[in-house]
Amino acid sequence: MKPLVRDQDGAETVRLLAGDDGRAQPISSRIAQVEMLRTSRRFAALIPHAEVGRAALRDADGVLAGVHFLVLDQEIVEGAARMEPAGLRSLAALHLAS
Fold it and tell me: Is the dihedral of CA 81, 96, 69, 50 positive or negative?
């Protein structure tokens, strides 16, 4: 993980996010899981060779297995609902809030 902003708590944040092996674990919301799996399914449906499609789905599952998923709790939902600008799409607001 490469911190975007160096601050006094940056090292502590990286330590807290790191797994047992000292490497940071990817974190995302469940929205990203749905998007990745649906995109993989769309890709698989477009490919005439069935094994390539199945491989895309397996690859997506493998990537997602290493991700820590955040729960979309009421705080995230309310933050997304109130996020500016008002024209921001709902899905984008949920991504940003989580």
Answer: positive
pLDDT for residue 4:
40
At 80 the pLDDT is: 94
Q: How far apart are CA 16 and CA 27, in angstroms?
A: 12
- Angle 34-35-40 (CA atoms, 0-180°, nearest 5)? 100
Per-residue confidence (pLDDT) for residue 1, from 0 to 100 = 34
Spatial contact of 98 and 72, defined as CB atoms under 8 Å apart: yes
Secondary element (H or E) of residue 97: helix 90-97
Contact 57, 41 (CB under 8 A): yes
Mind giving me the DSSP string for 25-70?
PPEEEHHHHHHHHHHHHHHHHH-SSHHHHHHHHHHHHHHHHTPEEE
**Low-confidence spans in the chain with pLDDT less than 50:** 1-6
